[in-house]
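[Meeting: bench + compute handoff]

Bench side (C.D.) handed over the final construct sequence. Compute side (W.E.) agreed to return the predicted structure before the next meeting so the bench team could plan truncations. Sequence as handed over:
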Amino acid sequence: MFDYLIVGAGFSGSVMAERLASQHHKKVLVVDKRNHIGGNAYDYYNEHGILMHKYGPHWFHTNDKKVFDYLSRFTEWRYHYHRVRSYVDGILVPIPINRDTLNLLYGLELNEPAAVQRYYDSVKANIPHPANAEEMVISQVGAALYDKFFKGYTLKQWEIHPRDLAASVTARIPVRTNRDDRYFTDTYQGIPKQGYTALFERMLDHPNISIMLQTDYRSVLDKVSYRKMIYTGPIDSYFDYKFGKLPYRSLRFEHETLNQEFYQQYQQVNYPNEYDFTRIVEWKHATGQKSHLTTITREYSMDAGDGQEKYYPIPRDVNHELFKKYKHEADQLEDVIFCGRLADYKYYNMDQVIARALMISEKEIKD
């Protein structure tokens, strides 16, 4: 007899399992169809001893001290600023766009934030209420920088023209007037010192938590007793796609290990215009490992067909309307809690996933 059946061993499911087990002494069964815990944050050492992320890079960053303090119970940190370069016009330039980006691209000598802002003001379009992702960028940095950095990358990432995507897709992209080349400016940044998988192992190491891997949750519904389900999988799958499938983008990764210490100067280089991959990540820059070998990963975006991992909900009005039909069904269920990226059909940063799981588990404990 379990108090909770939790479907999914990623951050949403694991955080809620740990909180319910340790704080309210609930017996919890965590079920996951994969052969490992950790969800998309799972990492591992490859055959050459390089620590890498199986489902694409996960760079932790947050301003939420509560989230940071919570995770710090289960890991030490390697504090690390995520720095990205973009390959544009044959050179590597900082992204987000900053003062150095403009000076390198255009041979300018902008030397203070006010001068950079004047440049943006001189090239940006006057669009008070951007209606789509294209207008959002052009209203900030103008058409030329949009073409160089955003149009091609967005087309590769989504296979949808930016003018057909919601403005929210590019609304979060920062534009800077100083020389700060950190991708994120959050107070807390880094990766778990021993890796994400080790963090999850400690999080789920509790006598009240049982785990079943390589298991479809439907196969255990008539074999175990439980009071309530916490479901972190795709919401449309839970309802057997009764209204149709919610569309996602997926990713394909191409790994290569090279007999040299480093391949590139930065942990991530974006390719908005050249090649069919979107970026190359070199793991050792982030992990700090020492090795005479290095592993890089090229990332390709693709549609999420049958059997492929679902990464990004596609932000279009028609998809949101379809999700609302499933959300209405979910709201009628008193014994199932839907939580996480797939269940909410929403892109969350890691800290947002954790904050939401903490909030829901606190409500459950009070109830």
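W.E. noted at the follow-up: The longest strand covers residues 248-258. C.D. will use this when planning the next construct.
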